[in-house]
Design brief:
Layout (H helix, E strand, L loop, with lengths): L12 E9 L2 E10 L2 E10 L32 E8 L3 H23 L6 H12 L10 E4 H7 L9 E5 L1 H10 L4 E10 L3 E10 L6 E8 L20 E6 L2 E6 L1 H10 L3 H14 L3 H9 L5 H12 L1
Parallel strand pairs: 6-9
Antiparallel strand pairs: 1-2, 2-3, 3-4, 4-7, 5-6, 7-8, 8-9, 10-11
């Protein structure tokens, strides 16, 4: 059963709720199918009773509206779903509780300009993953804008995206167990499809950074040089020092092309000019631009800036 499957005909059991916070009314339910269960986070506008109205929608955190009205939250209820054995109920409940406790901070970081403590969070992640020695955990690396920031690019990351091998999904979750806001599970990430992934919020309830990692459940479908697919067929990586120890990061061309796709001029211009001095990987850049949704004129313009 896919995590996004319509489960309205299956009996649902409420595990927690209704709970209030960040402008939303929260509930946790499960629908059992033999020894497997689909766990669902529900969130609907809770009004003034939940210190609302909410400051913004939850799609930025992977939530979606179900295809049919939710029996708990109605037609505008947000959902996040995870497919796991029912025995994982205690861990799912713990993740759900931390998620709703830190949701107000995450929403403020996205919609109200609140600071994101990327450096301390990343240091905590690195230290937990490498307790047995440098880069000892299952193969992992830092991607996205945080990778570019670590390389010295003038960008301000809003979260920490990790790439990893398949075995790394569970390994990272074990290392960050007390920070998890979503359990490692088969789940639907709207931008990537069905994945094995998880999320954490590393830091205190009042400050910290969102950390995300996932792999496709059909890894052969990943295109060559994909940022989230392990080398050698996947991401092109660099190893750099971070707080006295090495850390792997994806090349900054990935962050640049993503910023171009988002039409983010505040990031694109300084990142492109910085990358010209850093030294662009022209082959990688051309591959990423060719399979992007960026208009050809914009591709030519950024390429001209980097290579002149």
């Amino acid at each position: 059963m896919r995590p996004g499957h319509d489960l309205t005909t299956m009996p649902s059991e409420m595990l927690s709720g209704p709970d209030l916070g960040a402008g939303f009314l929260h509930q946790l339910t499960t629908e059992r199918d033999g020894d497997r269960s689909t766990f669902t986070y529900h969130a609907q506008d809770g009004g003034s009773d939940a210190n609302g109205p909410p400051k913004g929608p939850l799609d930025v955190f992977g939530f979606v509206h179900p295809a049919s009205p939710c029996q708990f939250g109605g037609p505008r209820c947000w959902h996040r779903r995870f497919l796991l054995p029912f025995s994982e109920t205690p861990r799912v409940r713990a993740c759900y509780n931390r998620q709703r406790f830190v949701l107000a901070t995450m929403i403020d970081q996205v919609y109200a300009g609140a600071a994101v403590d990327v450096g301390p969070a990343l240091l905590e992640v690195r230290d937990r993953l490498e307790r047995d020695g440098p880069m000892s955990a299952p193969y992992w690396w830092v991607g996205g804008s945080t990778a570019a920031w670590l390389l010295g690019a003038p960008v301000s990351p809003r979260d920490v995206d990790l790439g990893c091998a398949r075995e790394g999904v569970d390994g990272i979750a074990r290392a960050l167990l007390d920070y998890l806001i979503e359990p490692p599970a088969a789940t639907d990430w709207p931008a990537a499809g069905i994945v094995a992934g998880a999320r954490a919020f590393v830091g205190t309830f009042a400050s910290g950074a969102r950390v995300e990692w996932a792999v496709r459940l059909e890894p052969d479908s990943a295109p060559s040089l994909d940022e989230w697919h392990p080398p050698p067929q996947g991401a092109r990586l660099l190893s750099i020092p971070f707080r006295g120890q090495p850390i792997r990061v994806s090349r900054p061309e990935y962050a640049l092309v993503r910023a171009l796709e988002k039409s983010d001029p505040v990031t694109v211009a300084p990142l492109a000019h910085w990358l010209r001095g850093f030294g662009a990987d022209v082959e990688l850049l051309d591959v990423l631009l060719a399979r992007s949704r960026i208009p050809s004129a914009d591709r030519d313009a950024v390429r001209a800036v980097l290579l002149r």
